[in-house]
Design brief:
single chain, alpha+beta, Alpha-Beta Plaits, 2 domains, four-stranded antiparallel beta sheet, 5 helices, acetolactate synthase regulator activity
Length: 189
């Protein structure tokens, strides 16, 4: 009878090893967090992410209930399913947090972002800039003889695509608001 020799650093793949061939992949999730609108709340939420090494791809905050003094924080983050569950559980334990919703899991949602692009160029480049603006339904919000400022509203992917196309034409500066998102249907978050 021959013995099975396993080299150091190698992994054994058994029919009973349920983890064999499984790698937890990072997923992108959009979280809506309803919090008290008071000093220090945003710092506590951000501290949770930075203290544990979680990444924030996008962050928007605004008061959504003036009478109840509540704000909505929309956070786009990435992580394995286990990390996302940890983030949601830890957010829920912060005292000024009232609700945590994972819009990615809860069902269909609508995400939009606003971006401003300053694109500098002359001659044929200006014509191409205006053509691209028309295709992307971008609004010209400022114009000089040397540059345009375009306003683009859409999904983060649309914003990225517009940036990629105007970069060679002379993209000088860009500002993005971050994602605003709502779940579809009649249910309110």
């Amino acid at each position: 009878m021959s013995a099975l020799k396993i080299e150091p650093g190698s992994t054994s793949h058994s029919a009973y090893d349920l983890r064999a061939g499984y790698e937890a992949r990072d997923e992108r999730h959009t979280l809506a967090v309803i919090v008290d609108n008071e000093a220090g709340v945003l710092a506590r939420v951000i501290g949770l992410f930075s203290g544990r090494g979680y990444n924030i791809e996008s962050l928007t905050v605004a008061e959504v209930d003036h009478e109840g003094h509540r704000s909505r924080i929309t956070i786009v983050t990435t992580g394995t399913p286990q990390i996302i569950e940890q983030i949601k559980a830890q957010l829920g334990r912060i005292v000024p947090v009232h609700e945590v919703h994972d819009l990615t899991v809860d069902g269909p949602s609508v995400e939009r972002e606003l971006a401003l692009f300053k694109v500098a160029g002359t001659g044929d480049k200006r014509v191409e800039m205006l053509r691209l603006a028309d295709v992307f339904r971008a609004n010209v919000v400022d114009s000089t003889l040397e540059s345009f400022i375009f306003e683009v509203v859409g999904t983060p992917q649309k914003i990225d695509a517009f940036a990629d196309l105007v970069r060679p034409l002379g993209l000088a500066e860009m500002a993005r608001t971050g994602v605003a998102a709502l779940s579809r249907g009649s249910a309110a978050v």
